Amino acid sequence: MSQPTAAGDAAPATMRAVVVTRPGGLDALEIKDVPVPVRKPGWVRPAVAGRLSWGPVSARRPP
């Protein structure tokens, strides 16, 4: 996982994310290092997002 830069409180360049790589169930989810999204004016970026909504996961399961 990425670490903050030498500035100490600066945002890291990458973050770990659960990525849906193909249609399917839980086997289609992979943990990857991805670029940190750039914050746009007026937007906020949460410090920690530690929750997964199971609605989209269950909707992706094959019938």
Provide structural commentary.
This protein has a domain at 11-37. It contains one helix and two strands; from the N terminus they run ββα. It has one helix spanning 54-59, and strands spanning 14-20, 29-35. The protein has a two-stranded antiparallel ribbon. The longest helix has 6 residues, at 54-59. The model has no long low-confidence stretch (mean pLDDT 76).
Summarize the structure.
Helices cover 10% and strands 22% of the residues. By secondary structure, it is mostly beta strands.
Index terms:
63 residues; mainly beta; two-stranded antiparallel sheet; 2 strands; 10% helix
* Tally of helical runs: 1
Question: How large is the radius of gyration?
Answer: 15 Å
Strand order, main sheet: write it out: 1-2
Overall geometry: elongated
List the topology elements:
Layout: E1 14-20, E2 29-35, H1 54-59
Antiparallel strand pairs: 1-2
